[in-house]
């Protein structure tokens, strides 16, 4: 197989683009996809400071690397979740990357800074680990961005993540989630803008990017993820993709182009009535925000 | 050749030469869900792997995170 761009020997085939790429041209392809996504969705502009949420995995490290290459003013944020060896190792990968690129890594540690970890804390709060983890991440990424004076938080969600979430939301017709499933969530009082610059790259491409760019990342899975629904959706979509390449991209981008606006009014209604959490000041619809409630139960 | 598989980490012995696509079919792996790494670079489905190659098949699907 030959590279589509330079006709040299290809090292990776991307079937949905019906193309092979050599290493250099593939890295160029990834940069272009991200640059285009940032431009098309007006994700960030000149002079803005970006905080990328880094897990030590392939997506977030690829994203950080690409944003640095594209010349953005971008620092990393690593959130220690206290998930045993997995957290220790993923933190090491994030730190090693930052050191290698001479980039700044901000660190927040749940056990050290908030007195609980995800496995024990979620059990004490009677929540599934991923739900406690997800809400902690949303809260703490936003908090760290506000405290550090960043304009935007970027996360490493890729095409497969978004297609799988969309698939789950459609199967259940979760109209409120459908209305909020956008690659950009604009800033509002108390919230910084949130963007997903990797939505044009499939998971296989972000992993390939790391291998070809010489980025070491944690290949092992978070032990809490085993057997969750999201993973099942990804496998189902991959079986379809294998038969007909391009289906995932058509599903997700077709939704953004032709369906997503139908659900936004619903989501907007639910965002009304926000006020400040009495405990931490974060915007919430209740008296105490979900993170502070979790904190109260997880610590005891 | 020794082929390194991940999650969980294990090794299988496969006689070479063998085409990448054939190897993936033999191991019943979806080519959309893995990368095949030889040495420090990737190889496409039409490449042929030899006995002395250092091969890793790395899954690319990660789960869970919202
Ligand atoms: S799999 Fe679940 S618990 Fe593990 S990091 Fe992702 S959201 Fe958190
Ligand atoms: Zn090329
Ligand atoms: Zn609060």
List the helices and strands and how they pair.
The complex is a heterodimer of chains A (300) and B (66).
Chain A: E1 12-14, E2 19-21, H1 23-40, E3 49-54, H2 58-69, E4 73-80, H3 84-101, E5 105-109, H4 110-114, H5 118-124, H6 129-148, E6 152-154, H7 159-171, H8 175-180, E7 184-185, E8 193-195, H9 203-213, H10 229-243, H11 247-258, H12 260-271, E9 275-276, E10 283-284, H13 290-299
Parallel strand pairs in A: 3-4, 3-6, 4-5, 6-8
Antiparallel strand pairs in A: 1-2, 7-8, 9-10
Chain B: E1 2-5, E2 10-13, E3 18-19, H1 20-26, E4 34-38, E5 41-42, E6 48-49, E7 55-59
Defining traits:
heterodimer, A: 300 residues, alpha/beta, 6-stranded mixed beta sheet, globular, B: 66 residues, mainly beta, Ubiquitin-like (UB roll), 5-stranded mixed beta sheet, two-stranded antiparallel sheet, 11% helix, binds iron/sulfur cluster, binds zinc ion
Molecular structure report:
The complex is a heterodimer of chains A (300) and B (66). Chain A has a single domain (35-261), classed as Rossmann fold (3-Layer(aba) Sandwich). Helix content of chain A is 53%, strand content 12%. Chain A has 13 helices and 10 strands. Chain A has helices at residues 23-40, 58-69, 84-101, 110-114, 118-124, 129-148, 159-171, 175-180, 203-213, 229-243, 247-258, 260-271, 290-299, and strands spanning 12-14, 19-21, 49-54, 73-80, 105-109, 152-154, 184-185, 193-195, 275-276, 283-284. In chain A, the strands form 3 sheets. Chain A has a 6-stranded mixed sheet with strand order 5-4-3-6-8-7, with helices on both faces. The mean pLDDT of chain A is 94. With 66 residues, chain B is mainly beta. Chain B has one domain (2-59): Beta-grasp domain (Ubiquitin-like (UB roll)). In chain B, the strands form 2 sheets. Chain B has a 5-stranded mixed sheet, with no helix packed on it. The mean pLDDT of chain B is 92. At the A-B interface, helix 6, helix 7, helix 9 and helix 10 of A face strand 4 and strand 5 of B. One zinc ion is lined by residues 277, 279-280, 282, 288-289, 291-292 of chain A.
